[in-house]
Amino acid sequence: MKANRSIWPVCAGLLALVFMSCMNTGKSKSIPVRKQPFNRDWQFCSGDTAGVSWHKLNLPHDWSIEGEFNKDHPATFSGGALPGGIGYYKKEFNVPSGYAGKQVYIEFDGVYMNSEVYLNGKLLGRRPNGYIGFEYNLTPYLNVGAGNTLTVKVDNSQQPNSRWYSGSGIYRNVWLTVTGKVHVKHWGTYVTTPKVSKDQSDVHAEVEVINNRAEDRKGVVRTIVLFKGEKVSEKEQTVTLKAGNTHLVTDDHTVKNPQLWSVETPALYTLETEIYVDDRLVDRHRTPFGIRSFDFDTDKGFILNGRQLKIRGVCNHHDLGALGTAVNTRALERQLEILRGMGVNAIRTAHNPPAPELLELCDKMGFLVMDEVFDMWEKGKSRYDYSLYWDEWHRQDLIDFIKRDRNHPSVFIWSIGNEIPEQWEERGAETGRELSKIVRRLDDTRPVTAGMNPPIHTNNKDVTLQFDEPATPNALAGSGALDLIGYNYAHRTYLQHQINFPETPFIATETTSALATRGYYDQRSDTVKRWPYRWDQLFLDGNPDNTVSAYDQVSAPWGSTHEETWKIIKKHDFLSGMFIWTGFDYLGEPTPYVWPSRSSYFGVIDLAGFPKDAYYMYKSEWTDETVLHIFPHWNWEPGREVDIWAYYNNADEVELYLNGRSLGKRSKKGDDLHVMWRVPFNPGTLKAVSRKDGRDVLVKEIKTAGTAAQIQLEADRNTISADSKDLSFVTVSIADTTGNFVPTATNRIEFEISGPGKIVGVDNGDPTSHESFKAKNRKAFYGKCLVIVQSAGTAGEIQLTAKSKGLKPQKLVINTTRNRNEKD
Asked: What is the pTM of this model?
């Protein structure tokens, strides 16, 4: 294979930087750069052109999202109706001669799926699981002082292998680690806080140190607890490191007056490990962690740092909408920011190990995480899914998952499975006990659960419509394997939990499954619909255009509306909390419909990141921020009766006006979560006023919009980093001549861009759209669409222009800046 020497200087420079950073002598305090991103200057070709047509790209990369939607793709509409196939990646790089005697590793955070990795033609390993990270030792096959070729084969051709959109390729980050022969092992630190109080905390550190030398060596291992860069505690011990062996070093620290990690104040500490051999610093490794205590109580629910806290969670799949599954830190951060605005404090990683960046963000931003590892065990759910590899790989994948994630303070529950078919059988109980034993051996500080549907059956047909008749009791729930009983749906059984499971606390692992299309409303709104009628029967009713009313009036038959489940959870302390299915719409699984729908309706927020109306119900219940949200829009046929809903809080009542005339006051009664008026449409202005003790709290207006006349652009951030990764998400709205939002607009918007940036995605939240996410245009969907702009590697000014026939164009400037310490 002919080397592409044009990229050698870039890679050689990076590797030389890593090497020189590791060449510290004496007890130097400079930090060795042991781990660097290895994402730039790869080449890719799809399986049908292997070895013929390569093109250059940077990782992470999802090739499926670049394809065309088609009902005949083997992933099916449930998998997003996008192509899979086989792809090849290669990276050619030079290694400086100074690498002699060093250890060099390559780490992949995730490759979907069935990856094979080769260095200079030598197979390093195979990994079928598309969600777990893994590391290979390059050292034995590395050409030091010469060229090297790293090749990765990715095989996502056997489909369906997922119940949702999986993406394809090296879709997470890749890292290069360079160390001395003696170093901290991969995922080799474990930090716990056995005793925590406001006055003092114990910090227990375990460090695995590996000696790859041919002879025993004496070394000094120093562990340092840091807070905001300042030393809090330090321990040091001399150890004998046996040749070719791993040595476990343990230290116990005391932290006075600790800053506790919580959802409001997510304080982070760092365990820094230094290893000295012959008075030379040979490795320095950093492990972020948090100090917090928590417990689940059968009566009081969840307690964090001594305070009761209701878990207000959402489940999320791993795709990022128009970006596909290619991980991007800013895109993840935006999702969390939007969720935080609604009052969410917890995430369930449905149904697989998440990207490390998600957990890092949750650590920093103060989100709790239910970290989930498997969607199936031995029995499959799709023809080519992970069950095919279960026997050979599940132990290793579970071990790697726990060791990778166990230092994150955000992680507070391990989930070993979701709706596992074996849950009803003794084999499921056996497997549950096996998995839980592995988890507890590696981390006994967090409870283990599984999402069961449901944990127990009753003869009440309203509990679940997933089965023809009540099944046998759930073997997994009664196995003793679980520390928490995880309920997927079955909200009508929640109040019997303390009778059915008196010694095991409750968690609603998955709830609701309400359905909605942003911006669309059926009249009338005071009837509840369960679509489809059964999970295993084709749904032939519904709306002809595959829409679902955005009033909170439609759910899947196994679930509930948003209000139904929350009304139960909020009332009882022993109900520790809930995880809504889902926070965001996701690609694939378009319940209740089939093709031409290709993405879900479950999200509280649509695929483009635009909140649906139910978002504001949660915001009114889950935050202290004053809320008044009225809907729907006010563009209808003359005389048509329209239901007007209002979500509100911090007020006694809401009064609604139409063109200055009062339509009456409404107040929530009992456990009501909204108020409603039925109003014949008459063009003009709807005005809602919320009042407390007779005083106005908030005023909101909705006006009848005229013909679409202009485009409005609003960036979530007008200044981004010039690092070739950062993103600005630009909301495109259609307005009339006076600036009123046009809620029914479907204009096609064309985008042009100049300056140091590019368009990397477009979307509008329409679950039926077959337009490419990678186009430079998009139709508005109920008045809105989205364009995603990514920075280049230079600072400057990006100018985005949006145009549409018959509309006044709009321009937006996004500035890019480069910090001195930024690395490519």
From this structure: 0.95
